[in-house]
Write a structure and sequence with these properties.
single chain; alpha/beta; Rossmann fold; 8-stranded mixed sheet; 11 helices; about 15% strand
C-alpha cells in the first residue's frame, strides 16, 4: 500500500452535494489543492457544476465561471487571454467538464483550443455517461455497458479521445485515477508548469450510474487500473508515450463484477472485452518502448 503524500490547502470545502462516496469530489479536492489559490476555474454543466455550486455557496475557494456545455474550452481560452491582458500570465486556468461535455458536446471547442494551443489545463471527469441526467450513454461509454439509453449494452466501442487529442500535438495529455492520488497530484503539478493546452482525464466510477456500492468507488477505480481497462500514462507533444504503470496484474472480471452495468454479460462477452483490453495495452506498451 502506497502512502498518500497529500497536504490539504483549504481549496475545497465540505458541505457540497456530491453523492456520498463520490470520487469526483475526492479528485476535485486533490486537484484544487495541488494547483493552489492562483487559479481560476471554468466549469461545464455536469456533476462538477453541481458539486461546485454557485457563488457564494461554491465548494471551491477559487473563483469559478459556469459556462455552457458546448463551450467550456472556449470560455477557458477567453478567461486565460483576459488574465494575460491584465498581466496575470502565471494564473492557472482550470477547465472542468464531464465526458459528455468533452467527448461529445464540447469536443469542437476543445479541438479548436488544442489547435490554437491555448494555455489552459482541461480536466475531464470521465464517468462514461451522462450520469446526472439519467445515466444515458455517451461516446465515452465502453462497449457492452448498460445505460439508461442502452439497457442491453452499448454496441460500439469507447471513443479514443486521448489519441484524437494526441493528433493535435498538444504538449501534455495524461490519465489519472482516484485510486492513485500521488500520481494524480504529480501529473496535475507537472501540467501546471507546461505552457499550452494540457488535458487530464480522470476515471470516475459513478456510484448510481455504474451500480457500484457507496464505499467501493476507489476499489473499483483501482481494479480498472490494475486490469488495464484504464491505463495510467502520459503523452507529451503527441508522440512521447510514458506508461506510469507498466504492468497489469489482474484480468478484467473483478472490475466488471463490481458493476451492475455489466451483469448481463455472457462469458463470450467478457472474453471479447478482455481481448480488447489486451490489444490496447500491448499497443500502448509498444508505443512507450519506441519513444525516443
Amino acid at each position: 500500500m502506497e502512502k498518500i503524500e497529500y497536504t490539504d490547502e483549504g481549496q475545497f470545502f465540505s458541505g457540497h452535494v456530491a453523492c456520498a462516496g463520490c470520487v469526483e469530489a475526492l479528485s476535485m479536492r486533490v486537484i484544487l489543492n495541488t494547483l493552489g489559490k492562483d487559479t481560476v476555474g471554468v466549469v461545464a454543466p455536469s456533476c462538477s457544476a453541481v458539486i461546485l455550486g454557485g457563488h457564494p455557496m461554491s465548494a471551491a475557494k477559487i473563483p469559478v465561471l459556469h459556462g455552457t456545455l458546448e463551450s467550456a474550452a472556449a470560455s477557458a481560452s477567453g478567461v486565460k487571454r483576459a488574465l494575460k491582458a491584465q498581466g496575470r500570465d502565471d494564473t492557472t486556468v482550470l477547465c472542468l467538464a464531464g465526458d459528455g461535455g468533452t467527448y461529445d458536446i464540447g469536443l469542437q471547442a476543445l479541438s479548436s483550443a488544442a489547435e490554437r494551443n491555448e494555455d489552459i489545463l482541461y480536466v475531464c471527469f470521465d464517468n462514461e455517461g451522462y450520469m446526472n441526467t439519467g445515466g444515458q450513454k455517451s461516446s465515452s461509454t465502453p462497449r457492452n455497458a448498460a445505460t439508461g439509453s442502452t439497457p442491453f449494452g452499448k454496441t460500439t466501442r469507447k471513443k479514443n479521445l486521448i489519441e484524437i487529442l494526441a493528433a493535435h500535438r498538444i504538449p501534455y495529455i495524461a490519465t489519472v485515477s482516484p485510486s492513485h492520488l500521488n500520481d494524480m497530484a504529480a501529473k496535475i503539478a507537472k501540467a501546471q508548469t507546461i505552457e499550452g493546452t494540457k488535458v487530464v482525464i480522470v476515471l470516475i466510477p459513478c456510484l448510481p450510474g455504474w451500480g457500484v456500492a457507496d464505499n467501493d468507488a476507489v476499489a473499483t477505480a483501482r481494479l480498472g487500473v490494475e486490469s488495464g481497462v484504464f491505463p495510467l500514462f502520459e503523452i507529451e507533444d503527441g508522440v512521447r508515450y510514458t506508461m506510469t504503470k507498466s504492468d497489469k496484474s489482474d484480468a478484467i472480471n473483478g472490475y466488471l463484477k463490481k458493476q451492475k452495468r455489466y451483469r448481463h454479460l455472457t462469458e463470450a462477452d467478457r472474453a471479447d472485452l478482455q481481448a480488447e483490453v489486451d490489444e490496447t495495452w500491448s499497443r500502448l506498451l509498444a508505443q512507450a518502448e519506441t519513444t525516443v
